[in-house]
Amino acid sequence: MDLPEEVVDDLRKRLRRIGGQIQGIERMLEEGRECRDLVTQISAANRALERTGFRLVSAGMEYCISNPDKAEAEGYPIDEVEKMFLRLA
Fold first, then answer.
1. Which of 32, 55, 56, 88 keeps 20 to 30 A from 49, CA to CA?
2. What is the pLDDT, as a whole number, of residue 18?
3. Is CATH 1.20.120.450 the classification given to domain 5-88?
4. DSSP letter string over 21-49?
5. Taking Cα atoms as reference points, which of 70, 41, 52, 43 lies closest to residue 14?
6. pLDDT tens across 8-54, in order?
7. Residue ranges per domain, the chain?
């Protein structure tokens, strides 16, 4: 599936930010921070990862709707993209 470059850039930026969050959580563990603080940060990283997945699937749906024949030929019929969306939901 051909995703627009701006979508790929956005996804990569989001993933780098999430990576920073994960590193921050590891530092918090090393520092012996409170459990509630760790859970808050883990929850935030989890939400950010979910939003990244939804952004990817949203771009995929746009692609499939705009290019249905090409998307299907590439192995992404709209029902498959819908299944990917439901896996995230």
1. 32
2. 98
3. no
4. HHHHHHHHHHHT--HHHHHHHHHHHHHHH
5. 52
6. 999 999 999 999 999 999 999 999 999 999 999 999 999 999 999 99
7. 5-88
